[in-house]
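Before the break, one more example. Copy the sequence into your notebook; we will annotate it together after we see the structure.
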Amino acid sequence: MAIRCKMRLENVFRQQWGGIKAFFLCYYDNTIPEDQRFQKATPSGTAEFVIDNPKAAEQLVIGEYYYVDFHPVSKPETQAA
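Here is what the structure looks like once it is written out:
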C-alpha cells in the first residue's frame, strides 16, 4: 500500500557544507477539490530533508506544491552462510 501527501515547500536553508535543508508543510487551499481530499486524509504534517544533490535542489521552489510518496520497501533476502 502506498501513501501520498501533498506538501508545500515553506523554506530552504543553505548548509555551510554546500547542501540545502528543505522544509515542507501540509498546507491546503479549501477551494481546490484535490486539496480538500488531501486535507481529509493528512490534515497536518511536516517533512524536512537535507539534500546534497545540486540538480535536485535547484528544482525546488519555495511556495510550490509537491507530492511526497511513501511505498513499502521489501526486506532483502538473507543469504545462507
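Residues 3-70 form one domain. The CA atoms of residues 16 and 41 lie 37 Å apart. Try to locate both features in your own notes.
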